[in-house]
Amino acid sequence: MSYGDAMRARTRSEERRAEIVRAALEVIAERGYRGASLAAVAERVGLTQQGLLHHFPTKEGLLVAVLQERDRWDAMPAGRLRLDLLASLVEYNAMRPAIIQTFSALLGESVTEDHPARTYFTERYTGVREGMAEVLRAEYGDRLPSGLTPERAAPLLVAVLDGLQYQWLLDPESVDMPSAFRDFLTLLGENRPD
Predict the structure, then answer these.
(1) How far is it, in rounded angstroms, from Cα 13 to Cα 26?
(2) Cα–Cα dist 176/73, whole Å
(3) Are 154 and 133 spatial neighbours (Cβ–Cβ below 8 Å)?
(4) Closest CA to 97 of 24, 45, 25
(5) Selection from 97, 93, 94, 114 nearest residue 105 by Cα
(6) Lowest mean pLDDT among 46-60, 78-92, 108-122
(7) Keyword annotations for this protein (predicted)?
(8) What domains are there in the chain, each with its CATH number?
């Protein structure tokens, strides 16, 4: 096999993996992780289950690929995250309900001891809380207007972000997620010194 043939084969394999990850995201959004089968994902992309296993040998490996892909979509350059960019991320998320639904379903399922994404989400939230504390510290210093430290306020900020997503998924006509998050930012900055 020539170098060019090898590169084309690698590119096709990467494209197929991306297609499988997108299909897995859809199937998980529809059925949840436990209800999603490799056979259903394979069928959606026109593969046999054995063909899918060539790219992702385990269901857990596919799940991790789905979660990593979702995180790549939301990644912001280090040191560039600000509260106003978080508001933009919320607006962006409001345009992609299937991805938010998948993330929320997996997050909800991951609280059980034996769920394969439990470690992923536990580690992810440790990092997210640390990142939110940095954002709050950059915006307010060592104390928010309420007197809370950024470390004490960070879990609340994360809870608002995730809680709004759940409410919006359940009743998108009644919950304007971007507006509600901007309202929360107003509350954070209430009585903020100039």
Answers:
(1) 20
(2) 22
(3) yes
(4) 25
(5) 97
(6) 78-92
(7) DNA-binding, Repressor, Transcription, Transcription regulation
(8) 1-57 (1.10.10), 73-193 (1.10.357)
Query: How many residues are present in the chain?
Result: 194
The per-residue DSSP string of 29-53 comes to HHHHHHH--HHHHHHHTT--HHHHH
Which two three-digit tokens encode residue 108? 């909800």
Q: In angstroms, how far is CA 184 from the centroid of its own chain?
A: 20
- Rg, the chain, Cα only: 20
For 104-125, how does the pLDDT look when each residue is reduced to its tens digit (9 = 90+)?
A: 888 888 898 888 889 889 999 9
Q: Report which of 72, 61, 65 is spatially closest to residue 18, judged by C-alpha positions.
A: 65
Positive or negative: CA dihedral 155, 158, 164, 170: negative
Tell me the two tokens of residue 164: 């709004």
The amino acid sitting at 124 is R
Residue 144 and residue 136: Cα distance in Å, rounded?
8
With tokens 């009743």, the residue in question is: 171
